[in-house]
């Protein structure tokens, strides 16, 4: 009998190889969340720099508005799309908006999913790879994280190139902000 066993209720020893894989998943998961926070900061800074030309006001505007707990990623992304489509039409046409949405969706699955193992209760052996359970749907953890990396590697350089090619602002200032 194969049963779905959630980590919280896993009450028998986990094979060291599986434990090692779980540790790798946890590290990669953290890196993905941190990476997406960086991408979100690129979006925020793009919008801020479009509207705020005075370097002295950028930091306070960012702290007061964009870092407010109710100023969500979706709102930032919608502002980014509006600025790009209205003021930078040619760049907007080239920008992979659908891939960006997919990246966000994958990040949410990875960040909010439970880690699931499948085990045989009789033999107490883990039978399958580590899975993510998100809203009742199961995903192979490694495959989902690989999918994120592929999209990230397409999108992140385009976003960075967009910022520098538009010459909206001093790139040195942009780099300092995105490092925080």
The shape, in one word, is elongated
How big a fraction of the residues is strand? 5-15%
Summarize model confidence as the mean pLDDT.
79
Spans with pLDDT under 50 lasting ≥5 residues?
1-9, 169-180
* Major sheet: 5 strands, antiparallel
Q: Classify the helix fraction into a percent range.
A: 55-70%
What is the rounded Rg? Answer: 20 Å
How is this structure best described in words?
By secondary structure, the chain is of the alpha+beta class. The chain contains seven helices and five strands. Strands 1, 2, 3, 4 and 5 form a five-stranded antiparallel sheet that branches. Strand 2 (about 115-120) and strand 3 form a beta hairpin. Helix 1 (about 15-50) packs across helix 2 (about 55-65), helix 1 packs across helix 5 (about 95-110) and helix 1 runs antiparallel to helix 7. The longest helix has about 35 residues, at about 15-50. The chain is elongated, with a radius of gyration of 20 Å. Residues about 1-10 and about 170-180 have low confidence and may be disordered.
